[in-house]
Structure formats: C-alpha cells, structure tokens
Amino acid sequence: MKQYILRRLLLIIPTLLGIMTINFFIVQIAPGGPVEQAIAHYQGIDSNNSSRLASGTNSEIKENSTTVKYRGAQGVDPEYIAALEKLYGFDKPLLERYFSMLWRYAQFDFGDSFYRDMKVTDLIVEKMPVSISLGLWTTLLAYLISIPLGIKKATSHGSRFDIWSSTVVTVAYAIPAFIIAIMLIVLFAGGSYYDWFPLRGLTSDNFAQLGFFAKIKDYFWHLTLPILASVLASFATLTMLTKNTFLDEIHKQYVITARAKGCSTKRILYGHIFRNAMLLVIAGLPAALIGIFFTGSMLIEVIFSLDGLGLLSFESVINRDYPVIFASLYIFTLIGLLLKLISDVTYTMIDPRISFEGR
Q1: How far apart are CA 273 and CA 250, in angstroms?
Q2: Which of 93, 135, 329, 353 could form a disulfide with 292 if both were Cys (CB 3.0 to 4.6 A apart)?
Q3: Angle 51-320-322 (CA atoms, 0-180°, nearest 5)?
Q4: Does residue 278 contact residue 350 with C-beta atoms inside 8 Å?
Q5: Rounded distance, CA 26 to CA 164, Å?
Q6: Beta-carbon count within 10 A of 331 CB
Q7: Do residues 202 and 133 make contact, with C-beta atoms less than 8 angstroms apart?
Q8: Model-level pTM greater than 0.90?
Q9: What torsion do the CA atoms of 37, 42, 46, 50 make, to the nearest 10 degrees?
Q10: Cα–Cα distance between 290 and 189 in angstroms, integer?
Q11: How far apart are CA 113 and CA 37, in angstroms?
C-alpha cells in the first residue's frame, strides 16, 4: 500500500503540471485581459474594475492615434500601455512568465491580486470560512438525510413510500441549485411572500456585539436558505446510491445464510449489510467534500451574496485577475488530487479485501 500511495503522490506532479499548463496558455490567448480591462476602464467603457487599474498613470496619458496591439487602445499613449504591461507583468515574454509562475507556485508563492491590495494566499484564507461553513453543513446534512432515506427505500422497495419518495428525489435532482435558491428567496427572504430569513452575508452587522448563543443563532439564521438550497440539489444522487448498494447487498448469499441462521432483520441490516453497502458511500465522502466546497457553492454564494471562494473565483474570472485564477486552480486541483487519493485509501480501510498493490 505504501508503494501505491508513493506512486500516486508522484503522479500528482505531472497531473498538476499538465492542468496548469493547459489553463495558462488558454487564458493568455483569451481576449479581455488585465491590460485591455484597464484601457476600457480608463476610456469609461467598463466601470466595474478596481480604481487601481488606472491610478498613478493618468498624468502620462497623451492623445494620439498610435496603433497598438490591444483592442480598443487607439488614441491611448503607448507609454501608458507599457506602464500597464509592467504593472501586470506582461512586459516579459510568455514563456518566461510561464516558468516563473511554475517556480513560484512550487514554493506556494502566489503573488498579489491585480485588483485587491492583498496577497492571494491571504485573500483565499479570508474567504475560506464562508465556503467551509456552507460545504461542511451541506455535506453533513446531505449524508444524515440520504443514508437513512436510502436504507428505508431499499427495505421498502416497490412500496408506496418508495415510489413517492423517488418522485421527490428525482424532481429535486432535476432542478438546478440556483433555481431552488431563487425559489427560496422568493418564498422566505422578502421576495413575494414571507420575510423570515436574511438575504445577504454570513452574519448580521451587529454580530460582534451579540452573546455566545445569539451568535450561534444568527450564524445559522443566515445559513439556513443557502444550506437548504445546496442540500436539496445534492442529496438525490447520494440517496439513490445508498438505496441501490443496499438492494445489491440484500440479495447476496451471506444475507440469505444469516436469515437461515435466525438472525434478526435489524442485525442483518446493520450488522452485516451496512458495512458492505456503505463502502461506496463513505469512501466517496472526500470527493463529495471537494465538490461541494469549491464547485457547487459558487452560484449559491453569488445568489446569497456570501463572500466565499465561489464568489471570489467568479469575480476573478470576470475581472481577469490572473493571480487569483491560477492560484485557486492550483490549490483546488492539488486538494482534489489529494482527496482522491484519500478516497482510495478509505476503500481499503473500510474493506480490507480491496487492495491496490497490484496496480
């Protein structure tokens, strides 16, 4: 097992390198880069970017018609454009920027954000609590609901309960999370019906002045709708996976033998079937965590104005904040690869019969 883990750890390096290389060159040739965004901001075309884009260089602007290589830059002083290229590091050749990025990222040096006066690492750490809160509670509730529901559906397969619960699960799976989020806002956040829950943020403005239990109440009060939207959109697959794995185990020979020996249904279900049936479900927990933390929460964070990693990634792509984009991709990919390895190791811990030594 140690050799397998070592091989997997070594394979992370070329995998991570390939992902970063492909994305680096795709992003570089995409239109609307930081320099073009700065030019557009200066000309009044786009006012969404940070004021840093044109600060400190307005005095250098001269009106002329010099042809430049950036779209929409006609009439902009080449010295101003050169200053922007130096500011964002585009005064260096493409390959030099690429290898410089790889060397810095190997040392976990992600530089500074283009549009926020912060180091990228500090920025990600600052946004992490929101995404962890949303992802952790969503994963916990999804498992607490899906596993008992899946077991109940398996033991009552074909019954009226199984049919109507499958209908509910299928409908929940078919509706995207952001649609569910909008429906919850309309119903319970001051849309058209009730105004029971807040619409923005993770805590209230007076959170620091609240007592301990009042802080807990305020925290979950703000998280109720985002978590509910995430859970409704994510528990369907886990429920059906649990049901199908239990159904598969129920009809195996060792279950028939246990029944013939007079074991109770409860002992057979939770003493024999549960461990084998939960193999796929529990071993998939690390992958579920990375999916909910860093991908599934983006639209939820945008809709509910939660300042987490999903919203940060969205804004970084819109603003072409390359350091944040590449750092987020690097960190999330590395975490994803490590969690995938942990997921495989979890298989062997749950069921010793599984071995990866021959792979």
Answers
A1: 7
A2: 135
A3: 105
A4: yes
A5: 47
A6: 18
A7: yes
A8: no
A9: 70
A10: 28
A11: 15
Contact, 54 vs 38, CB < 8 A? yes
Amino acid at 354: I
Q: pLDDT tens digits for the chain (359 residues)?
A: 777 788 888 888 999 999 999 988 888 777 777 777 777 666 665 444 443 433 444 433 344 433 346 555 555 667 777 777 777 777 788 888 889 888 989 888 888 888 887 888 888 888 888 888 887 888 888 888 888 888 888 888 888 888 898 888 888 888 887 888 888 888 888 767 778 888 777 778 788 788 888 888 888 888 888 888 888 877 787 888 888 888 888 878 888 888 888 777 778 777 778 777 777 677 667 666 666 665 556 778 888 878 888 778 888 888 888 888 888 888 888 887 887 788 777 777 766 666 666 55
- Go through 62-96 and write b for each residue having 16 or more CB atoms within 10 A of its CB, e for each that does not: eeeeeebebeebeebbeebbebbbebbbbeeeeee
Name 47's bridge partners: none
Both tokens of 223, joined, read: 């998280």
287 near 296, Cβ under 8 Å?
no
Angle formed by the axes of helices 322-350 and 94-106, to 10°? 40
